[in-house]
Design a protein that fits this description.
Blueprint lengths: L1 E5 L9 E7 L6 E2 L4 E6 L4 E5 L4 E6 L6 E3 L3 E6 L49 H10 L17 H11 L24 H10 L11 E2 L2 E2 L16 H16 L2 E9 L1 H16 L6 H15 L5 E3 L4 E3 L5 E3 L1 E3 L2 E3 L2 E2 L7 H16 L13 E4 L19 E5 L3 E8 L5 E16 L5 H17 L5
Parallel strand pairs: 14-18, 18-19
Antiparallel strand pairs: 1-8, 2-4, 2-7, 3-6, 4-5, 6-8, 9-10, 11-21, 12-13, 14-17, 15-16, 19-21, 20-21
Helix pairs in contact: 1-2, 6-7, 6-8
Length: about 450
């Protein structure tokens, strides 16, 4: 019996994936659960195991293709159970023939608006295609895409590279005519994208090109310059940050936090936590205070739809940590149900797995609010860019000892030296008003200043 192997749902917010590398060839015999293909998404990379043992009958998509969830990737005949060794994981198959392969369904983003650019003005291309363009020194802005809705494919890049080198290349097939775009909703990314493509409304700057009469000067190499190509993770981060700044009207509000009581609490218990193999950091206390304040101020635990907003029931905190591929934001789920100990264990576990490259797509999906901590060299404060589709993010500043005015035992004001930190809240003004944002940050500050924790 021939079994269809389909693109899995690799995380709740993931709708498509890029075929990074086939680990098998047509005709290979595989065992059940043997990795057969590497898939890249905007969250992380993963391997897809064979659902059954048998012979690989056909590969229906090629390396570099962007494929929708539930699309058929290949077919395995489970009636063939050869005694031969399974296919080597290191073998690299030739690309599947276009004539033999059924066209893979590709997710059509409504924000695309039928053009060849995304809502942020960048060319529509998968991470693999972008890497190919970098290696061949091809400017994607000058390439006409032959994929669905003008998406640039690897073949388009190869053709463009041949033309730039003076070679004769077959003309790119004209993209299929896109259906008329739907009527733009009053708000959201779809309205923005359609305004761009229809020539009306707000048109944002195009990264790397300019805006209006202003053009970005071209780069002229100088001796000693080092060109660092974007990694896949860096490209995803760049596109995410650009999208967030274009779509969400950011407002930043800052609170000064006296950490005197919380610091004393931490100092009293950090050695005990250290003996247990955990670090009792100030980040853990901020995370607990944030989760509690979100439960009391649900307007910040929300996301924006095209013409509505959603108050999310679960409080899932995304905590920015460093990894070998760059910054990632793994998620502590139901953080409001955890105390300091639970938060500490969650942060430690996610940070260790991120640094060893063992973070999974599910670990990075589903954040309802985010916290970022630049560390001991974080400077006074900074307004972080919102981690979409969240409505807000808190950024911790550097902790410094300062002279403050406190009330003495006799009721008189007196000076003291306390550890002080600035907390900066960036929030999406489309759905969060200043009153709600300030109430939330005030509550976070109150919890930290009172040292109101069970450690």
């Amino acid at each position: 019996m021939v079994i269809d192997v389909t693109m899995p749902q690799l995380g709740e917010s993931v709708s498509e994936g890029t075929i990074s590398k086939w680990r098998v060839r047509e005709g290979d015999v595989v065992k059940k659960d043997q990795p057969i293909v590497e898939i890249g998404t905007d969250k992380a990379d993963s391997e897809l195991p064979a659902p059954v043992g048998g012979r690989v009958v056909k590969l229906l998509v090629r390396e570099g293709d962007v494929v929708a969830v539930k699309a058929v990737l290949c077919q395995i005949d489970d009636s063939v159970q050869a005694e031969a060794q399974p296919a080597s994981a290191a073998s690299a198959p030739p690309p599947a023939s276009k004539a033999a392969a059924a066209p893979a369904p590709v997710v059509r983003d409504s924000a695309d608006g039928g053009g060849s650019r995304s809502a942020t003005g960048t060319a529509l291309a998968s991470p693999t295609t972008r890497r190919e363009a970098l290696e061949r020194d091809v400017n994607l802005d000058n390439v006409r895409g032959s994929g669905d809705r003008g998406r640039i494919t690897r073949d388009d890049v190869v053709r463009a590279s041949g033309q730039s080198n003076g070679e004769t290349a077959a003309p790119a097939p004209a993209p299929q005519a896109a259906p008329p775009p739907p009527r733009a909703p009053s708000t959201g990314a779809s309205a923005l994208a359609q305004a761009i493509n229809q020539g009306g409304g707000f048109v944002p700057p195009i990264p790397g090109l300019g805006y209006g009469s202003f053009k970005v000067p071209g780069y002229r190499p100088n001796e000693g310059d080092q060109v660092i190509p974007f990694t896949r993770r860096r490209r995803i981060t760049a596109d995410h940050m650009t999208y967030s700044k274009v779509v969400s009207p950011h407002v930043v509000t800052v609170a000064e936090v006296d950490l005197h009581k919380t610091s004393k609490l931490r100092d009293a218990h950090k050695e005990r936590y250290k003996k247990e193999g955990h670090a009792l950091t100030m980040l853990a206390f901020v995370a607990v205070a944030t989760a509690r304040a979100l439960r009391e101020n649900p307007a910040l635990n929300a996301r924006v739809l095209d013409d509505a907003s959603v108050l999310l029931k679960e409080i899932n905190l995304g905590v920015a940590v460093d990894s070998p591929d760059g910054l990632v934001v793994p998620v502590i789920r139901r953080a409001d149900e955890l105390g300091v100990r639970g938060i500490v264990r969650g942060i430690d576990d996610l940070a260790k797995r991120a640094k060893t490259g063992k973070i999974t797509i599910d670990d990075l999906s589903g954040a309802s609010f985010s916290i970022t901590n630049p560390g001991i060299k974080g400077n006074l404060f900074g307004g972080a860019i919102i981690n979409q589709p969240n409505a807000g993010i808190v950024r911790m500043g550097e902790i410094q000892k300062r002279v403050v005015v406190v009330e003495g035992a006799d009721g008189e004001d007196q000076m003291a030296i306390h550890p002080i930190m600035y907390l900066a809240l960036s929030y999406d003004h489309r759905i969060v008003d200043g009153v709600a944002a300030n109430s939330f940050l005030w509550r976070v500050t109150e919890i930290l200043e009172k040292g109101d924790y069970e450690v």
